[in-house]
Amino acid sequence: MVYLKDRYIGPLLFLIYINDLDDGIMNCRVHVKSGLYKSLVRPHLEYCTIASSPHYVTDKELLERVQRRFSRMIPELKALLYPERLSRLNLWSLEESRVRADLLEVYKIVHGLSALQYLFKTCSVVRT
Phi and psi of 120, rounded to 5°? Predict the structure, then answer.
């Protein structure tokens, strides 16, 4: 049985490994580490959020914990609170990202821009 945390921890362990190298990324700037996170880890956390958004609070917290751990790995931001670290890294929380993705998909469905528009009928009758 594969647990949710095991599925997402691999890319994070890669970042931790790179972070521990003497000549590696430890001396890089914050935007380099942030770019690595956004390209290597974040896509795994946000994969298929429209179709299978985490339902249970524990699953949401588990996913958010990966992002918290990454933001604490940056020495310059370690002492800050989590929302402040996110704003310095120009990141959204994963919950905010899922809500945004849901809103964008609803907009696409309503305006006929999505492939899912054929699953739902839109009503043109205006009720007051």
Answer: -125, 145
